[in-house]
Write a structure and sequence with these properties.
The chain is an alpha/beta fold. It folds into two domains: 219 residues, 3-Layer(aba) Sandwich (Aminopeptidase); 92 residues, Glucose Oxidase, domain 1, CATH 3.50.30.30. Helices cover 32% and strands 26% of the residues. It contains nine helices and 13 strands. Strands 1, 2, 4, 8, 9, 10, 11, 12 and 13 form a nine-stranded mixed sheet that branches. Strand 1 and strand 2 form a beta hairpin. Helix 1 packs antiparallel against helix 4 and helix 4 packs across helix 9. The longest helix is centred in the C-terminal third of the chain and has 18 residues. It starts with 6 loop residues before the first helix and ends with a helix. The model has no long low-confidence stretch (mean pLDDT 96).
């Protein structure tokens, strides 16, 4: 029987649940499960608790002018001054920093690329001159913790897979299309159209990848929950694929260590990194929309999503 799975309808539906955090992440998980059931695909749900920030307030003023901003803080607090203006992609010593105002050096968007253990907000780079010229800059963030039940949805060979395929389904941003409805759609398309892959492959739709209160890292708790229960599978697998940021250009694999650290935050990454392959589309375009309101469904093309799924299928076939 021919599958009724429609790639773009599925992708658009995943995007419609954004921001896919907390309750919206749970809704997304149920939609993924519904799609699997409709296509006769069995799955296993690995449930776990996660605690995330709920951003209730973010404001910034340059003199009396309100500056458009978004909360990038894990805590509530005040911003007093303009001394700590940083790139959203630059590591800082948080122990020595009381607050920050951050911006993207890649595009004039409000980019929530990183989150901090002190009051912080993201602004557009075009607003920096106003902030820098102001005599008085002040702001405030309000954040509360929210605990919910997240899950990793496992599809395929759970006992002795040769290949592992990860795609996180939560998101920060507008539609979360490139990051990472695209990866979820690519994996689902492969599952539905190549069910034979499930004999040798375990697909993991990972929850709570983007952000959580966790002592190890604020990102990737879903990966580490999988790692806690299935570390043997990570060690024994021939290849581990991470689908994150596809569909906006022709797909390719990379093993760039810096990219692997931010897209596959497993504790044992250093011991398995030689067999971890990140699939992405146009990497340059990703930075233009990353964690911003520009990351919409309009960034994706059906042909690129299909190319991504076919590349995954061909690579697994070649390595089998």
């Amino acid at each position: 029987m021919k599958s009724r799975f429609n790639l773009m309808e599925f992708t658009e539906k995943v995007c419609s649940f954004a921001p896919r955090l907390g309750e919206n992440e749970q809704i997304t998980a149920q939609f993924i499960i519904k799609t699997l059931n409709e296509n006769g695909v069995k799955y296993y749900s690995q449930q776990f608790k996660a605690t995330i920030p709920i951003w209730e307030k973010a404001e910034l003023f340059a003199d009396k002018q309100r500056i458009e901003c978004k909360n990038t803080s894990m805590v509530s607090g005040k911003i007093h001054g303009k001394e700590n203006i940083i790139s959203s992609f630059t590591p800082i010593d948080e122990a020595k920093t009381r607050y920050n105002i951050n911006f993207s050096p890649f595009a004039d968007v409000i980019c929530t690329a990183d989150f901090y253990q002190h009051p912080s907000v993201a602004v557009k780079s075009s607003d920096l001159p106003v902030i820098l010229k102001a005599k008085k800059v002040h702001g405030e963030t309000k954040v509360r913790r929210y605990t919910y039940s997240s899950q990793n949805i496992l599809v395929g060979n759970k006992k002795s897979p040769e290949f592992l395929v990860f795609a996180h389904y939560d998101c920060i941003g507008n539609d979360g299309a490139v990051d990472n409805a695209s990866g979820v759609a690519t994996a689902m398309f492969a599952i539905v159209n190549h069910p034979e892959l499930l004999e040798s492959t375990l697909f993991i739709f990972s929850g709570c990848e983007e952000i959580a209160y966790d002592k190890y890292s604020i990102n990737g708790i879903g990966f580490r929950k999988f790692e806690q229960m299935f570390s043997a599978l990570l060690k024994k697998a021939k290849r581990i694929y991470v689908l994150d940021g596809v569909g906006n250009g022709g797909p390719s694999f990379t093993q760039d260590s810096a990219l692997l650290k931010i897209t596959f935050q497993a504790r044992m990454l250093s011991s398995v990194c030689k067999k971890v392959f990140l699939m992405q589309g146009d990497a340059g375009k990703i930075m233009d929309v990353y964690h911003s309101d520009r990351d919409t469904i309009s960034q994706l093309r059906e042909e690129y999503l299909k190319e991504s799924s076919n590349l995954l299928f061909r690579d697994i076939e070649a390595c089998s």
